[in-house]
Amino acid sequence: MRIRTLTIVGVGLIGGSVGLAAKRRGLAEHVIGVGRQELSLERAKARGAIDEACLDLTTAAHKADVAVFCTPVDLIAEQVLAAAPSSRPGTLFTDAGSTKAAILEKVEGRMPEGVAFVGSHPLAGSEKKGPEHADANLFEGRLTIVTKTARTDTEALARTADFWRSLGSRVRVMNPVEHDESLAFTSHMPHLVSAALASVLPAELQDLTASGFRDTTRIAAGDPAIWSAIFAQNREAILAAVDRLDNHISSFRRALENGDWPGVLELLTRAKEARDALGN
Amino acid sequence: MRIRTLTIVGVGLIGGSVGLAAKRRGLAEHVIGVGRQELSLERAKARGAIDEACLDLTTAAHKADVAVFCTPVDLIAEQVLAAAPSSRPGTLFTDAGSTKAAILEKVEGRMPEGVAFVGSHPLAGSEKKGPEHADANLFEGRLTIVTKTARTDTEALARTADFWRSLGSRVRVMNPVEHDESLAFTSHMPHLVSAALASVLPAELQDLTASGFRDTTRIAAGDPAIWSAIFAQNREAILAAVDRLDNHISSFRRALENGDWPGVLELLTRAKEARDALGN
Fold it and tell me: How far is the CA of A80 from the CAs of A51, A83, A100, A147, A189, in angstroms?
């Protein structure tokens, strides 16, 4: 794959990493970064993540051969719909949002003739934000979900998969609803729990935390605005996953209350097996 | 501080790190490792964590000027009481167990004249085990809790604090019950929650986890036997901490159910502030 002009809307940690990887790997000749704040675009440019900064979405959309939206999930659909009418036929639109069904619902059927939108979600990132933390290797060996619905254009789907592979990622095609239900378990509900853990720590006990507590709550430092938008778009699946977790915590609680130590040992053994299966 | 013979009972990650740090820093002239398995003692010796391997606790206790027990919390009290009668007057006993009140209750008042036991807990470690993962710098800059009760000998307390400081640690003196209640929040309850998170992940979704899930569940890979013993010794405080977490998860759940997005944003903002206060 070879892109003449790649437009990245939202040049934070993810968007900046897309830009760095696209340039490092020779995927794009010219990279335009779109944002609302000149200063943050300049930082992205200084970092080498984009060649050109642009405050106007429609201008940048018109120049794009591929446009990737790396903004918070509650903004993606409206930005795609605002940009699409200015784009040229054959342009591919995709995104990097952590939810997929709500975005696809709003966008599908509303794109201009010849312009395709395919939903994506690279499973990579961090609790940090901003182009300063962008990393050309962020997608290397990681998995990107590319979504397929009854309306997805087959050629656009293949191009989207190629795009992420060209950035170093592995790709899996999935239905958006299945994506959202899965990510509720692997990312969204764990974020909620991690936030709850960080919050219930009495302030006077901060000094008594060690690496275990810090690992367990690391993601709670993520941007609250980004995460509340994710929670809003995937509410049902997250609530279902919270229920499953609650049930499991209750099993632990009952075993502790009953002094059922073989039961506790078994619960911990099952957890260790599950965690060991993930590797580092 | 300078120790002629340091005896370490249980030469795993913690005991091995005590040995490596004691030798690297010139704290002990001779380090004896005590264990039940010759093979694991040989690994500790090969690693340079101990000078001498000993399968017999009483022999090693007799030679010790300082003896530190780095075994699972359900074994420490009985091992201390088994070793103490063989030790010479002036010997200092301490430990590295993650719970303190139950151990102190069993040991205090039962030590021979002139032999002191002071409870300790270095807030350092990892989900890994074995002397292969021992680290001479494990205690560097970390906090060790040294416990004080009405019966604690003042000089022994000072020597214990010196011991951990000589290994690179900072030291805080605390009551054992306060220690256990605090650690329920900073370590034991988070371990339970991390284990529950790892367990509820459907196996077919393992490929869809990224660094966030892995961080949040890292400690769930800890040794189930070690952790079930900790849970047994600190049951009440852990259950109280689980209740507090449950309440907080319920606040999130209500906000999600009611579509109260400013409420969700505020909960996430509070969590981020709490996590940011901890540093990396």
Answer: 22, 5, 14, 16, 27
ipTM above 0.90, yes or no: yes
Q: Are B5 and B28 in contact (CB under 8 A)?
A: yes
B29 Cα distance to chain centroid: 25
- Cβ of B216 and A211 within 8 Å? no
What's the confidence (pLDDT) of residue B180? 98
Q: Which of residues 146-175 of A touch B (CB under 8 A)?
A: 172
Interface A:B, Cβ pairs < 8 A: 263
Q: What is the pLDDT of residues B238-275, one digit of tens each?
A: 999 999 999 999 999 999 999 999 999 999 999 999 99
What would the two tokens of residue B164 be? 């951990």
Please count the CA atoms within 13 angstroms of the CA of B55 that sit on its side-chain side: 6
A244 CB near a chain B CB, below 8 Å? yes
Q: Which of residues 105-144 of B touch A (CB under 8 A)?
A: 123-127, 142-143
pLDDT of residue A127: 81
The mean of the pLDDT values for chain B is 97
Q: Give the other-Cβ count within 10 Å of B204's Cβ.
A: 8
User: How do beta strands B66-69 and B3-9 pair?
Assistant: parallel
Q: Which two tokens stand for residue B226?
A: 């070690």
Interface contact B73, partner A, CB < 8 A:
no
Determine the 3-state secondary structure of B241 from DSSP.
helix
SS3 for A35-97, per residue?
Answer: CCCHHHHHHHHHCCCCCEEECCHHHHHHHCCEEEECCCHHHHHHHHHHHHHHCCCCCEEEECC
What is the bridge-based pairing of β-strands A170-174 and B3-9?
unpaired
Query: Please, what are the averages of pLDDT over each run of 10 residues along chain A (280 residues)?
Result: 97 97 98 95 97 98 98 98 97 98 98 97 90 96 97 97 98 98 98 98 96 96 96 98 98 98 98 95
